[in-house]
Amino acid sequence: EAGVTQSPTHLIKTRGQQATLRCSPISGHTSVYWYQQALGLGLQFLLWYDEGEERNRGNFPPRFSGRQFPNYSSELNVNALELEDSALYLCASSLVTDTQYFGPGTRLTVL
Amino acid sequence: GQQLNQSPQSMFIQEGEDVSMNCTSSSIFNTWLWYKQDPGEGPVLLIALYKAGELTSNGRLTAQFGITRKDSFLNISASIPSDVGIYFCAGAYGNNRLAFGKGNQVVVIP
Question: Is B88 exposed, middle or buried, given 0-12, 13-18 or 19+ CB atoms closer than 10 A?
Fold first, then answer.
């Protein structure tokens, strides 16, 4: 069974640009979660999608947004990139339990 | 948000030794999860605990869900070089939310 997949692996952008990150959950999982892991700051919850709806949102500005598609894959968009947005962005998926399975992450670098 | 205190923050151990790490909180959690993360990669789920008092093993790993539901521990027995990495605890609360510890960096000395 394939795990959570994310693309791209690495992404380099400049300040003010937009970034789009993609995630495919484990087959059968309906919930997708996005986290930011900046150096030294641990995992910070960004967004939770389930059945195509945004269910919860972490303490991040509105320029962080996303969506979940009918096939349960998800996209995270970050507008007006700032230097401090440089981080590893992790996607996780789950079925009905609390147990979340993570993807390999997308390393976003903002220059 | 919920706070998890993970200790110790880092540890250097000799190959073959056992290692223990704790995660505590003042809050109650429904589920405790332990993950391992290698540099630049995503966390990998090691053990999931769903009931207070539950003791679960996965190979050389053993973890327990504290009776008070406010803590958990993870033991690694007979450590090997590939055990090196950052170990995170996570507690599930509310509606599919996870709180994470800051991680414990384990270094295994051959």
Answer: buried
A102 to B43: CB separation less than 8 angstroms, yes or no: yes
Q: Quick one: tokens of B96?
A: 């599919």
Q: Which two tokens stand for residue A57?
A: 């949102």
On average, the pLDDT of chain B sits at 94
Determine which helix (DSSP H) or strand (DSSP E) holds A81, and give its type and residue range: none
E strand intervals along chain B: 5-7, 10-14, 19-24, 31-37, 44-49, 55-58, 61-65, 71-76, 85-93, 97-100, 104-109
Q: Would you call A102 and B102 a contact, using CB atoms and an 8 Å cutoff?
A: no
pLDDT digits (tens, 9 = 90+) for A32-57: 999 999 987 789 999 999 999 999 99
Could you tell me which chain B residue has the CA closest to the CA of A88?
A: B40
**Is A7 at the interface with chain B, CB within 8 A?**
no
Which residues does chain B have within 8 Å of residue A55's beta carbon, measured at their own beta carbons?
95-96
With CB atoms and an 8 Å threshold, state whether B98 touches A56: no
Mean pLDDT throughout B85-99? 90
